[in-house]
């Protein structure tokens, strides 16, 4: 067995849970899971320091398949829960995983605020441009005129552009991958995890059961890696790549260094610590707890 295969085998033993994925045969999400397991194997993150938080959807079943202190929460609310995990224990490597519906429809209001806070976590969006779990309704990334169960005469809204939104919201690391390119996606997950701040990866992960437009072949025809000469600190250029109509660029669009939410919070807490006497703090806390006793 080659060294690479041996590493992959080892990563599976270490990080794959006993729960077998219930995704349809051929679902793009399998490729994302494979890349994620490989990335964990490369980074050797101990499972007691790992937390994967998801919302609801086919893609949001992800945390069940990986060993860690994981949370399968409610539709659209994975990001605020993940922020809570990070605040409670900044030592934990927090990953948020979910679909385009979970992230950009019901949960769309959370992304800008988490992005500008810049917590040190990774957000992986598995975009199949449809609601998979609920059997094929239109999503914010479904193409204009797409026929779905809720748009029988074709969608009349143009799709949103997740990469452009993430850039505009101030995410400090923005990348895109394709579920079929496991090698590149593994590397993107590693880079995103090493980044200190809010790192978002938009992954095109086709749903062969309900989306007959954004198929693997359709994506393969359009996918191009971002040229190596691209300067990822150039936000305007990143927008330009994200706006491409005839191509789907993959790779790292943008990265910047900015203080994290945890480090800013730490500064506030240290000011607060000195300002109030421990006894007063305890008394106030006890009064607060008494209200819920
Ligand atoms: C509050 C709430 N509203 C609606 C639903 C129904 N629901 C479950 S998953 C889902 C959308 C799933 O699409 P997406 O997030 O893109 O994930 P996918 O299944 O495609 O991976 C919806 C609308 C729900 N579970 N909870
Ligand atoms: S319905 Fe689509 S997204 Fe859900 S598991 Fe099946 S192929 Fe994957």
TrEMBL record:
Its cofactor is [4Fe-4S] cluster; thiamine diphosphate; Mg(2+). InterPro entries: 2-oxoacid:Fd_oxidoreductase, OFOB, PFO_beta_C, THDP-binding, TPP_enzyme_TPP-bd. GO terms for molecular function: iron-sulfur cluster binding; metal ion binding; oxidoreductase activity, acting on the aldehyde or oxo group of donors, iron-sulfur protein as acceptor; thiamine pyrophosphate binding. The keyword Iron applies. Residues 207-268 form the Pyruvate ferredoxin oxidoreductase beta subunit C-terminal domain. Residues 56-203 form the Thiamine pyrophosphate enzyme TPP-binding domain. GO terms for biological process: cellular respiration; small molecule metabolic process. Keywords: Iron, Iron-sulfur, Magnesium, Metal-binding, Oxidoreductase, Thiamine pyrophosphate. SUPFAM superfamilies: Thiamin diphosphate-binding fold (THDP-binding). Pfam families: PFO_beta_C, TPP_enzyme_C. PANTHER family: 2-OXOGLUTARATE OXIDOREDUCTASE SUBUNIT KORB, 2-OXOGLUTARATE OXIDOREDUCTASE SUBUNIT KORB-RELATED. NCBIfam families: PorB_KorB. This is 2-oxoglutarate ferredoxin oxidoreductase subunit beta. It comes from Kryptobacter tengchongensis.
